[in-house]
Design brief:
With about 200 residues, the chain is an alpha+beta fold. It folds into two domains: about 80 residues, Arc Repressor Mutant, subunit A; about 110 residues, Beta Polymerase, domain 2 (2-Layer Sandwich), CATH 3.30.460.10. The strands form two sheets. It has a four-stranded mixed sheet, sandwiched between helices. Strands 1-3-2 form a three-stranded antiparallel sheet. α1 packs across α5. The longest helix has 15 residues. The chain starts with 6 loop residues before the first helix and ends with a helix.
Length: about 200
């Protein structure tokens, strides 16, 4: 199953904006650690709010705080009892899907993008710090049309986004022709940005 079309609203219901941003950054890149100033810059929230959230998350055991001289760093705690479950929730509600949904929203609203999904390691939950975001887009939008959204998403996520863009007719033709790449995408784990599993099945017919 893919993410619900209401996953953005779900993320907002579960976590406040600042906590959502901190968790998306740290749990989305669990092999890395971040200096406080870098977290301020990436979250684009008030320093006081970020400091409070980090304090709560450290106290709860979800985030690690380490010091080297005068430098303080924060990172996700993979040993936390709910780490995997929380990481899965964040990936679906506040990580790459939400960022790409926001950046692609103008093209989705005009119907130029009828379906978009993330596949590969991030969809499977097996990403590392070096993992790219693999993106499939179907519709009338061209690669040139979506590049600005992709670049903006890369800046926010700190990851490279690799888009594959197809008109619906070409996607259907290649899928029926047995293109291995598309068969793997359709049959593998997916995080939906626009559309859902039913829409994907409809477009594939």
């Amino acid at each position: 199953m893919g993410t619900s079309p209401k996953s953005v609203e779900l993320g907002e219901a579960l976590f406040g904006r600042t906590r959502r941003g901190v968790l998306a950054l740290l749990l989305g890149r669990p092999d890395e650690r971040f200096h406080m100033r870098e977290i301020f810059r990436r979250i684009a929230s008030g320093s006081g709010a970020v400091q409070r959230e980090l304090g709560h998350l450290v106290e709860a055991g979800l985030v690690r705080r380490t010091s080297e001289g005068r430098q303080v760093y924060f990172s996700a705690n993979p040993d936390a009892a709910v780490f995997r479950e929380l990481q899965a929730i964040i990936e679906k509600t506040a990580g790459a899907p939400e960022v790409l949904r926001t950046e692609l929203a103008p093209l989705i609203s005009t119907g130029q993008v009828v379906l978009a999904l993330i596949y590969g390691s991030i969809a499977a939950g097996s990403q590392t710090a070096a993992s790219d975001v693999d993106l499939l887009v179907l519709g009338d939008a061209t690669l040139t049309d979506i590049i600005p959204a992709v670049r903006a998403a890369e800046a926010r996520l700190g990851r490279e986004v690799n888009p594959s863009v197809y008109p619906v007719g070409e996607f259907r033709k290649r899928l029926k022709g047995g293109t291995p790449f598309l068969n793997r995408v359709v049959s593998g784990p997916k995080l939906f940005i626009a559309g859902d599993e039913d829409e994907l099945e409809r477009l594939a017919r």
